[in-house]
Design a protein that fits this description.
The protein is an alpha/beta fold and 422 residues long. A ten-stranded parallel beta sheet has the order 1-2-3-4-5-6-7-8-9-10. The longest helix is centred in the C-terminal third of the chain and has 15 residues. The protein is elongated, with a radius of gyration of 23 Å.
């Protein structure tokens, strides 16, 4: 599973202003406003939300509570004045565009919230205009997750439109997975992040675009528009998740072309993208240049490195569930071997790439990465249990022919995004 690595805790690194409650200062929670609004609207209060407010908790998750647009009005009323909450999860609550607009309005008043998760709320492109005003008007929100909201390309355009007009951005982490984004949306994203950063902006560091429809064309736009040096004034991408986007070998080649000169990228997830041996060869050539190993030829003659890798910082590359096969694994091993010892790579994941667990090539790849990282078990390619997300996807495949009732038991958990990157 893609888990952002830039921050150890969603509430770490905050200023002392956020600790006033511990210094004896009574901070507003919005509990009274919440109950008053529920009474006016004649709706049943959410007990878990009310307990979080009365308990002055820093985090509250209320997914699958059926809050709806009317309930969002009460939640928004409490967020308008709340000075305690740092992280809020409202996933799968049927908020729709109307409810998203209410939450966005609350962001304009709230000065403490750092992490907001609104996954699976059918927000659509209509709700993105209101959200855009909220995220650009909030100076403290650092992470936003909008997975599985049917945003599409129009939603991406609406969400990022204020950036093209010079609005400041506080977000360091953005999750747009499972939103039907095509190469058109990818270009909109690049265009918005290419504009000169307004005063008070921070640089976007974590971008999750899994389960979209980017293909090779969209991947090329992101690779050359966001990862190359000085390409995007508003972005300093450290973690990029592109799994399940059908990027193929061509998309892998575009990424490989910029990896040796990507000055900030530390982790790249490319699971289940139909990358075969040709794509692995391109990535292997890029790996061979990491750490300034340009000009060397890997043992066996399969990979020739090219110069220009001295500024790269890539530490993790995940290629799980791609039809790389023996040939692809061989050239990957050669690429890693050619890059020693200056290569920053510390983890190369290759579960489910079309070879048996006892394949000697996996042992060779293990040894190559271990030599760089100085630790054992770094690749996850051999002698390790499959990661949780892989087990889950295999379970889904096994249940494809099963009754619908059995499929409902398989759930997918979105990653928890950090609040700031380092």
């Amino acid at each position: 599973m893609f888990t952002p690595r830039a921050c150890s805790s969603p509430t770490s690194g905050f200023s002392s202003d956020d600790d006033q409650a511990h210094a004896g200062v009574q901070l507003a929670t919005g509990a009274e406003e919440y109950m008053r609004t529920c009474s006016v609207l004649q709706i049943t209060p959410c007990g878990r939300w009310h307990r979080a407010l009365t308990g002055a908790l820093a985090e509250c998750a209320i997914p699958h509570y059926g809050i709806g647009p009317r309930g969002a009005v009460a939640v928004g009323a409490s967020l308008n004045v709340n000075e305690v909450l740092l992280e809020v999860t409202l996933s799968d609550n049927r908020l729709g565009a109307e409810g998203a607009g209410v939450v966005a309005s609350a962001l304009l008043c709230n000065s403490t919230l750092r992490v907001l998760t609104l996954d699976q709320n059918a927000i659509g492109s209509e709700g993105c205009e209101a959200l855009a005003r909220g995220i650009t008007g909030s100076s403290r929100l650092l992470a936003l997750s909008l997975a599985a909201n049917g945003l599409g390309d129009d939603g991406v355009r609406a969400l990022l439109a204020p950036l093209c007009e010079g609005a400041p951005l506080s977000l360091r982490s953005l999750n747009l997975s499972e939103n039907g984004i095509t190469p058109v949306g990818a270009r909109e994203l690049v265009r918005a992040l290419h504009d000169e950063a307004a005063e008070g902006s921070v640089l976007l560091q974590t971008l999750d675009l899994r389960w979209n429809q980017l293909g090779a064309v969209g991947t090329a736009a992101l690779a050359h528009g966001l990862l190359a040096p000085t390409s995007a004034p508003r972005a300093s991408i450290e973690e990029l998740a592109l799994s399940w986007n059908a990027i193929g070998d061509e998309g892998a080649r575009h990424l490989a072309a910029v990896l040796p000169r990507a000055p900030t990228l530390r982790a790249l997830w490319l699971e289940n993208n139909g990358i075969g041996a040709p794509g692995a060869l391109a990535l292997a050539a890029a790996l061979a240049t990491l750490g300034g190993a340009g000009g060397e030829r890997a043992a066996g003659g399969g990979v020739e490195a090219v110069g220009g890798g001295g500024c790269a910082r890539l530490e993790l590359l995940s290629l799980c569930v791609n039809p790389i096969g023996r040939q692809g694994l061989r050239v990957l091993a050669e690429g890693v071997e050619a890059a020693q010892p200056a290569c920053p790579l510390r983890e190369l994941r290759s579960d489910g790439c079309g070879v048996l667990a006892d394949e000697p090539l996996l042992a060779r790849l293990d040894a190559a990465v271990h030599a760089l990282s100085g630790q054992t078990g770094a690749t996850g390619a051999r002698g390790q249990p499959p990661p949780a997300w892989l087990e889950e996807q295999l379970c889904v495949l096994r249940l494809k022919a099963a009754p619908t009732r059995a499929l409902k038991a398989v759930s997918y958990t979105h990653p928890t995004l950090p609040t700031q990157g380092g």
